[in-house]
Amino acid sequence: MALVLVVVGGWFGYQRWVAPDCSGELRLTVAAAPEIAPAVQATAEAWMADGAAVDGTCVAVDVTASEPVDVAAAIAGQHGVSLNGVGQASGNAVLPTVWVPDSSTWLLRLRQQAPGFDPGSGASLARSPVVVAMPEPVAVELGWPQKRIGWSDLLKTITTGTRLRTGIVEPSRDAAGLSGLLSLAAAAQAAGANGAEAQRVTTAALRTLATGRAAVREELIARFPRATDAASIASGLGAAPLSERDVVEFNARKPPVPLAALYLDPAPLSLDYPYAVMPGAEPARVAAAERFFAQLDTPAFRSRLGGQGLRGPDGTWGKDFSAPRGAPSPAGADPTPSTETNSGGTAAGGSAAVIERTLSSWSVATQPGRMLAVIDVSGSMLETVPTANNATRMRVTLEAARRGLGLFDDSWALGLWTFSTELSGSRDYRQLVPIGPLSSQRSRLERELAAIRPKRNGDTGLFDTILAAYRTVQEDWEPGRVNSVVMLTDGKNEDANGISESALIRELKRIVDPDRPVQVVIIGIGSEVKRSELEAITKTTGGGVFVTEDPAKIGDIFLQAIALRPTTVPR
Predict the structure, then answer these.
(1) Which of 363, 374, 381, 444 is 20 to 30 Å apart from 266, CA to CA?
(2) Domain 367-562 adopts which CATH fold?
(3) Is it the case that residue 426 has pLDDT exceeding 50?
(4) What integer best gives the mean pLDDT of the chain?
(5) What class, spelled out in words, does domain 130-262 have in CATH?
(6) Are 311 and 321 spatial neighbours (Cβ–Cβ below 8 Å)?
(7) Mean per-residue pLDDT for 515-526?
(8) Does domain 23-126+274-307 have CATH number 3.40.190.10?
(9) Prediction pTM value
(10) Which are the contacts of 73, defined by CB distance < 8 A and separation ≥ 6?
């Protein structure tokens, strides 16, 4: 009896000793990039086994491996905005309390588009430098590992007619692809002696990369050579911006042709795996997120990172990390993007404005479209712009259009109209160039743009022109392209004899065809623009409204506008 009592008493005592000193349950949901998720999951399990709690309440941590682009789409949708190239989230997307994407550039882009998005913390959990991955025989030909190679060297290599096959994961959806694109674009800008030359070099580099573009990382990596013979190496992928972790994982499989990781100068933005607590979370969950972060800021977590091919946030690595040949340690010189929207960025261009400008240029330069550009020539376009050395609104608008034209390759189809009031008899608009292949009418478009002059006493016949332009683009709609009307105007509708706003909306609703979509993109210049009437139009047709009160900023706005893409393009 005494023995039984001792055993039973000892068992109950042990149970009370190991039982967590908490009650109830508070669930903390964490969405982490797939490559870091196992380390985060293991840490969560260890914390829960040790009695994870906040203010006496037990904490259960649910870690989900989630592609950053999918979570970004869900967050953008929650805020009623969209990210360039990302598209819409699935209808059943559920936002986590904590998000660990692979890069702070996702936070930058979301903040740029949705000012109400203000996540907490954002401290880095890990790091993986972005490198240029090359089959080792190809890298040796360029002087690796003895020679230190820069982005300017790579730019020259890929734009001088060599046989080096380059590729990139769609940079609007992949952080490593975006980092490489920013660095290459910065090198192209530096290589240009003037604005026009810089744009030419940049556009050439973007189009070269686009020939080897892949939708997802696995697709791109599968293109590297799988055999050691010269023919396989020559026909396989020769260079692509990837993360250091991608190279580590690839080489761990012992492929016939290993990859070299080239750490180019200047160092591109690293993947930095920020710990972002979503805004609007309940105080108890925020407290739980803070406690969990403390578990991730430990040597034990950093040790787990090594097994996933990741460095610690300071750039050093722990045990089980298999460093690529020539890898710098620590990688403390690698820049990470500032999460401030107005930051100056880094040498690679880490500000939100630079990111959006680069992605817009990428979209315009690499994806074919069919567009009718319609330019306001009313008398108000003669007003001067103090921030543009007192050039007229007309001049800064035409300069933006001219530079945009330089980005389009010959796969585009373009047309050009102007509008005011009674510009062609009783019509408010005039066709200068019909929509046609840019390959055959680029010079004509350039001449017509240069010859545009405002109508000194003309008003803004906006609504009649929008309807006529929409019908024109819809009439010869082409599959496989983004069919769009892009209007540039500095005022609201002033045509008393034309169609009313309500009648325009009714007519557009009647003729809109979901199987033959036409995007209407309206660029408003100056303080006289009435955004509400413009948005009522684009909500009916699809597209968007871009307004800047400072006409000197129309260049960036113009790029964003013409880069706008629907989620899907009917074929």
Answers:
(1) 363
(2) Rossmann fold (3.40.50)
(3) yes
(4) 86
(5) alpha beta
(6) yes
(7) 89
(8) yes
(9) 0.75
(10) 83, 86, 87, 88, 89, 93
